[in-house]
Queue: 3 jobs
Job 1
Amino acid sequence: MAHKLELPAQARIHNVFHISLLKRHHGDCPVSTALPSFDSNDQLELMPIDILAKRIKKRGSRPITEVLTHWQHTTPEEATWHEVHKLKQ
């Protein structure tokens, strides 16, 4: 059994999915009504919204600062580590 969603015209996701892809929802989950945006190469454009932690790692003899970044349209559990100088670019 397939379901068809009514999505905005700018949505770049397929609007038909099979019911077997659904999973039971447990607990509280943040809900976002805004769809993520894509660049001209169809790459997901993520904007950082918060820095959750910081660490310093060694790369060779140089210390590198990394931050745990919470991205727009994701949950804090999906945060990823990124080097500060690359994030600033």
Note: The first helix runs from residue 84 to 88.
Job 2
Amino acid sequence: MKQVVDKHKIGKEIEVGDYVYLKLQPYRKSSVALRKHFKLNPRFYGLYKILRKIGLVAYKLELPEGVIIHLVFHVSLLE
């Protein structure tokens, strides 16, 4: 089963200093970008700069001031 799953994995190569888009959950979007219609919100936000790599799959991003979410995100949330 592991071999079948590994065939579908996509390895993202992201370097420190690159700019990425960030995928957020609906209840967290309001602190990043306030929108009237949640149904019409974009799927990804940003171009945010990667400040550093934490572990194998986590990255710290440079988000705007006043954002009420954590600055470290899993690689699956970055595009």
Note: Residues 10-77 form one domain.
Job 3
Amino acid sequence: MSRRRRPAALALALVLVAGACSDDAGPQAPGPDATDSTAGDGAAATGGQPETPPDVDNVSARLVKVADVAVPVAMAVRPGDDSVYVVEKAGRVRRVPRGQTSSPGATEGAPVLDLSGEVSTGSEQGLLGLTFNPDGSKLYVNYTDRAGDTRVVEYAFTDGRADTATRRELLFVDQPFANHNGGQVSFGPDAKLYIGLGDGGSANDPGDRAQNLGDILGKLLRIDPAPSGDRPYTIPPDNPFVGRSGARGEIWMYGLRNPWRFSWDRQTRDLWIGDVGQNAVEEIHFLAGAAPAGTNFGWPLVEGSRRNKGSNPDGAVLPIFEYGHDDGCSVTGGYVYRGSKVASLRGVYVYSDACSGTLWGVVQSGGEEAGQGTLDVGGADDLRVASFGEDSAGELYVLNLGGGLYRFE
């Protein structure tokens, strides 16, 4: 389906993106991450797109550098706070004043959380995800520990810092391989905590975990972080597999290879997921706001719309858009732009690829692709996009592996 010409190769020797889609268990891109995806206040759960989708070819924008951050991979906003919070892959969370438009001193003061002594830093490992709860009193992170296993941890957030004395572990996941960790944590528009997990790594999902409802790998999970009995979180009773024999109640959607950033359209509550492919196809999934839970995206039986280890399962949802490896090798999912700084970008889902660095847009109408292309964006050279971020006003940020945090203007 790709209609793009691949740009010149970038510095792919960077460990973070090396071999992002190879068919072995070696180093790979962190399967790209984004930011806190919480929908804006008052978002209507209507789904869909305006009657006339925006024209991707007429988008004109520039990137303004906001701060220097070492290998940034995720961003979040805290309700009622005038800052954005940026994750460094090595294990630190930095505060950046939201009004900042240049980087004379990079970020503000000491890290608000420093886990650098607890985090593994292999190619797809590290501190990978960050979010705040809806009232801003708690901070949640997703990281790989020194053994390479996934941990999702809660901290109270007081006096501008994460209180490490309040550390509470919500989830531990034994990772069978070093790659495909997923890593995002985000509160959705329903105030539940969503956790993205890859299939556990290696090639072709050797354990067939993504299709196994008894395994949480290769899934999008949905939980309430409040404790319940002897469990550190609560499984919402309306999750689709609650009560099914042999199935994990935490599972919201399944059949994912390595979801490297998912987000909700703050206006429609539609869900978008960038799922990193293997050797052939990078996928972007779309689900309208009223779409049922329990969706199967087909991996590893299919890679995008192509057969991989079998046929597309009954009822599985194919990508709204996919592109081949002539155009990139590791999709970085983004956001539907709903800000006010770039009128021509409103309604466009913005995404990139960790290998190409090109900024692309796609729009949908009625759940079908209604236009896509390269975005006319200036202001930054040598982009290697690890993730995107969205602030409370809907303005869009780009996290560049080369060390910069940029904002669309």
Note: The chain has no helices and 27 strands.
